[in-house]
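Lab channel / #folding
Pinned by the channel admin:
"Please post every new chain as: sequence first, then the structure tokens as a reply. Keep commentary short and put observations after the output so the thread stays searchable."

First post following the new format, from NK:
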Amino acid sequence: MRVVSGFALIVMLTLVSLVSDEAQAAIDVYEFETVEQEQRFRDLSNEFRCPMCQNANLTSSPGGVAADLRREIYRMIMEGQTDQEIEAFMLARYGDFILYRPRLTMQTLLLWFGPLLFLLIGIWVAFTIMRRSGTESPGSGESLNADEEARLKKLLAQKNQDASDQA
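Reply from TO:
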């Protein structure tokens, strides 16, 4: 029992040390001259996507590439570059993929309006199916002429006679 407890203690300490090292690595400490610079840094870090993680912004990504890009943003802010200059730099280096919210361009039209287009097509198909099923109900065809009506009455009478004979 004591060996298991010792082993469990070692495993727990190892896991705690790994988690704490990872948590410390994800924390960036930057010194800013103004609150505005710090806010710009936060906004830009939230605006750009981590190229390695692909589904996380730079702020929430623990990846090394994200840390490098955060350092680059910090450096550019401290050098006095504008947000537009930083964005242009990132776009030139990583392409439109770096933007967490893609811009509206010819290449992204389907991305932005595709869901709406597919919804409208679905509504149109459903409406068409419902309209067709409503107009093609039984008995909605042409009316019978006099000969056909007489023949139908004769067949129905014969059917009723056969049914009463069998009963």
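NK: Residues 109-135 form the longest helix (27 residues).
TO: also worth noting, Residues 45 and 70 are 7 Å apart (CA to CA).
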